[in-house]
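User: structure tokens for this one?
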Amino acid sequence: MKIAVIPIDNRPICYDLIQDVLSIDKNIQLFMPELKDLGGLTTKSNIDRLFAFIENLDKVDYLIISLDTIAYGGLVTSRRCNDKFSEIKERIEKLKELASSRAKKILAFSSIMRISNNNINEEEKEYWAQWGKRIFDWSYYLHKTEVEKTYNCVHNIIPSEILNDYLETRKRNFEINKIYLKWAKEGFFDTLILSKDDCAEFGLNVKEALELEEIIKKENIKNAKIKTGADEIPLSLISRALSYNHEIKIKPIFLCEKSINKISKYEDISIKNCALAQIELAGLKLDIENPDLNMIINNFEFEQGDLVLGDKINETTKKIAFPNSSYFIADVNNANGADSGLINQLLKQNLSDFYGYCGYNTSANTIGCAIFCAIVKHLAIKNNSYNNDAFKKFQLIRLADDWAYQAISRKFVRESNPNFKQALFEKESELNNNALKLCEFLDFYPNKMTYSLPWNRSFEIRIKID
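Assistant:
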């Protein structure tokens, strides 16, 4: 099978992870642009080089496209760049022309521009440092009063030039998403996902999602969907492509059954609906009686913890009943990292039925990523093309990232701003000691592991294994 992917940007979770997971199946040929041609935190993708990549593709079975990468230069740049609507429209029309003959099926996603609930302008325009929380609140309550039809008591103090710029950027991206829906109806996309990134219950982004949903229903566009999430969507689209010709049955097992209707941080749907949406997007079939894969969802009992904010961190203490058949774990007890109580129990299990672990960032990120790895391993074993060392390598990276770094070492690194790199160097011994526990669990001993911060912040770490 030949798969080509244009990732969101150059983060390890968006680039390295795809390579590492698909290498688990020896029969999959993967084509991606060079890492240097993809955007970063402060840099845009080299769009001309990406066009050349598409143009030079021999016909592949599936082309997975993060549309923001072409339209704006990346997910972060989609919120920051001042390119005019006409420039972006010309760019995506060229994409359509080039890509139409390069793949049997095209699966793509575009983000509905998020509204972050803070004054951190790391991924937003400069004025977010002063006005971000105000913009979020204004957007939230404006939409809330519309929905609930109550008296509008919103008092706006945001300077008009800032608010107008923000609204113009939103409108531009919204109109581009409507073009994608038109293309989906025409059949250009096999599957189109418009994703809600970092959502609350109300806001202009939620309002846009409802309007786009209305277009989908009114125009009867069967191959377009609105989904909560972002980074995991390309992974879920690859999962969907892989499962087209296979019936893969899955059983979700929530460790806290009574709390499945609670809503995760950074999302607007329950953890149950989040899991069901990820299963559906990946093209899997629910089967409680005779599943091919058991998905253990380590969900929170009362409120999801957050290893970044640190105001509440959950840790499992009760004994977990691991299945006696193929299982994998989506660890969402905390956002932004692993539940150490679960990891301590996992490391005592044998590997025979283990199909993967993920505890990355949001619940949707985690569940989509965990499903992706489990599907690839399942199909590779089924097709006699399984690479066991590649699976162990990926799981070592995932566990070292989500547990050894995010849950244990990251707090020190994060609080060492602006000396992140020095702080990471100081934590290297601790990371290696915890990685050794993971190596013993996986029975996989690399010569060397190296750690770096590709975006010069504590959020994402690149772990390289020799």
